[in-house]
């Protein structure tokens, strides 16, 4: 059902980089053609939200992209969704018609790819305002608001029996890690895997590697709390790089008789990409990078690493096509074939959203799920 009314609701607005979010009354415009307006049910704080809040320059802004919700109204031309549908939001859409969407080789939609300017894909305008002044979007979602508007290609209809307070993690972090293990690296049974960074994404990679039958899954981190939790997700050995007296790549190569079959960089540090490459074996070693760097985006690696047969791959949402692949992940969770609950370390009320940022800064959480007002 199309709606022409503006909704006033509560949203957590970032006014300046690094400043605490402020709960404000915002106006949310009705959905335009090919858009839907959602009642956000649950949203989680992802590391990329945190990094952008610390460093980006587009403000005022509503962050949040890892979310679940219920369709409140649909814009003209939307046939896929109706009022009351349960959905996941996604930061990269799937238009189903562009070259990339039809290729079977890519999930980076040419129409609804990563949006960085804080406006909607369709008309380069915002759907949020405060007293007539624009408030900008983040990653085409902006889920730190009771209501939000997204392009219909940036939402995925899911089973109504799936708990929205759990499956919101599949809209980014957990799905991205599983997809990186299964689609991008295509981990083989009996292989050796090393994962740099044991946050949600790194542990989801470990979970995916275990389900693929990897024989050794080595986790590398500097946070003792994360190292302790890692084995529940399939990690067989943990290395705290702060305790090493030599470069960590030398430690890994010695542990694995020349290097791992697969390595994953899940930190967002381009220097660590080189370390991950050096931790792979000659001949067939594959390194996958999933992290988003805040500084120094350029990668430096000696050409001999590639001449010797190593491969470096990038991963966005684990190579998953949102509309094509996420519903099956939701069904896998319903059937107890994949873990989600174990990634949730905190459940917070909307008014406690700044506590989620504090917990992430202190390294005391995997995922904080923020429950929006009912």
UniProtKB/TrEMBL annotation:
Keyword presence, Nuclease: no
GO biological process, one term: formaldehyde catabolic process
Keyword entries, A-Z: Metal-binding, NAD, Oxidoreductase, Zinc
GO CC annotation terms, alphabetical: cytosol
Gene3D superfamilies on file: Medium-chain alcohol dehydrogenases, catalytic domain, NAD(P)-binding Rossmann-like Domain
Domain Alcohol dehydrogenase-like N-terminal: 33-158
PANTHER family attached to this UniProt entry: ALCOHOL DEHYDROGENASE, ALCOHOL DEHYDROGENASE-LIKE 6
Protein name (Swiss-Prot/TrEMBL): alcohol dehydrogenase
């Amino acid at each position: 059902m199309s709606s022409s009314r503006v909704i006033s609701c509560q949203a957590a607005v970032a006014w300046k980089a690094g400043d605490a979010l402020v709960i404000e009354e915002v106006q949310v415009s009705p959905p335009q053609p090919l858009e839907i307006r959602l009642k956000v049910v649950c949203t989680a704080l992802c590391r990329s939200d945190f990094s952008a809040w610390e460093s980006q320059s587009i403000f005022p802004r509503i962050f949040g992209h890892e979310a679940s919700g219920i369709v409140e109204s649909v814009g003209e031309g939307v046939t896929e969704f109706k009022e009351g549908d349960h959905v996941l939001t996604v930061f990269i859409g799937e238009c189903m018609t562009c070259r990339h969407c039809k290729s079977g080789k890519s999930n980076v939609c040419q129409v609804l790819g990563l949006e960085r300017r804080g406006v909607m894909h369709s008309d380069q305008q915002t759907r949020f305002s405060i007293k007539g002044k624009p408030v900008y979007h983040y990653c085409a979602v902006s889920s730190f608001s009771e209501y939000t508007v997204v392009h219909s290609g940036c939402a995925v209809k899911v089973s109504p029996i799936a708990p929205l307070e759990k499956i919101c993690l599949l809209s980014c972090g957990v799905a991205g890690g599983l997809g990186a293990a299964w689609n991008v690296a295509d981990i083989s049974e009996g292989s050796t895997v090393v994962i740099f960074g044991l946050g949600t994404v790194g542990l989801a990679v470990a979970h995916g590697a275990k389900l693929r039958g990897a024989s050794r899954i080595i986790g590398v981190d500097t946070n003792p709390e994360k190292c302790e939790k890692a084995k529940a997700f399939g990690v067989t050995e943990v290395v705290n790089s702060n305790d090493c007296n030599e470069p960590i790549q030398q430690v890994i190569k010695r542990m694995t008789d020349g290097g791992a079959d697969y390595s994953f960089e899940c930190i967002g540090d381009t220097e660590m990409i080189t370390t991950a490459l050096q931790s792979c074996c000659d001949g067939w070693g594959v390194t996958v990078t999933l992290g988003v760097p805040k500084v120094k985006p350029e990668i430096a690696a000696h050409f001999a690493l590639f001449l010797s047969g190593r491969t470096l791959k990038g991963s966005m949402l684990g190579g998953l096509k949102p509309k094509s692949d996420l519903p099956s992940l939701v069904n896998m969770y319903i059937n107890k074939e994949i873990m989600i609950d174990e990634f949730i370390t905190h459940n917070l009320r909307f008014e406690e959203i700044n506590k989620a940022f504090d917990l992430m800064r202190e390294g005391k959480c995997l995922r904080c799920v923020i429950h929006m007002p009912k």
